[in-house]
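REQUEST FORM: STRUCTURE PREDICTION
Request ID: SP-0412
Submitted by: Lab K.M.
Chain count: 1
Length (residues): 298
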Amino acid sequence: MAKLTWEAGDILPQIHCPLFTRLPAEIRIEIFEYALTAFDDTSNPYREDDYFFRPGYEYRQVLSTTLPQTCRHIYCETRLLSALVNELVGWYTTTRAPPPKLESANSIKKDLVMTREQFSLTRIHLHTQQYWLESRHFIELLKRWKTSPRSLHITWFWESGAALAFNPKKFGQPTPGVFGAEDPFARGSWGLAFRHIPDLQEFKLELETVVPKKAELANVVSHASTWKFPSADGKYLKLNEGKTISTSWLGPKVYNSYHELPFLTRALTRVAPNNKEKQEFIVTTLTWVPQAIATVAS
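STATUS: Completed
RESULT:
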């Protein structure tokens, strides 16, 4: 039976390999990082009417794992690199994720506490619906993580045609028009979640809606500039206004061939199959960074 573990003496020094004897370690690691960075599989595109199709997510991703299998020496130098150089992307709903479908958010929770490689994750990007963020799911997930990413990116699109409502200081569904500028953070509110990520250096929030709701989105963004999130070590996350980015893109009006979004009632609006109508989406990305309390107060 093959050994599943080995001692340091079992690893050959590779003294005849130019990769280890001629190249400086810094250049060698850059080569390894490039080889272990995920890339688009242009032969396997997503359909434009898939829920998860959007800029940056037009194709399935490919991550080659052949490099760490080359020899034990390379394995030791690269076993954590794929987690360091790639963004972990999570889709927290069973019907919105790209294939293969995850049975539930719990499957990601279990994965995140299983391997040493995942302890080294530095960038995590969550695509979620509002109810998931505003319930206890988000905070409970952060408590379970055995990793502390330096960058957390959250993307969501308001699927409902109702008035846009967003309040990080409230637990549960927010009230339209109430943004919590002066309110304290309620117990269980998602705005308290960042206390569980001690190494966090950047929080990005990507808000997306359709053009008819442009004024509503602008109102949300205006209030969001006042939010300061408690983080670890007695610091706060404060909006870096210089990093605010507004973009737009042309996407489908009909998803999965017959669901029109945003919908005006709780039931998805069904339309004629294979409807190819387009609509313009507008996106604002906000970025918060750590600040000392004294700096925030000033």
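NOTES: The two ends are 65 Å apart (CA to CA).
Reviewed by: T.R.
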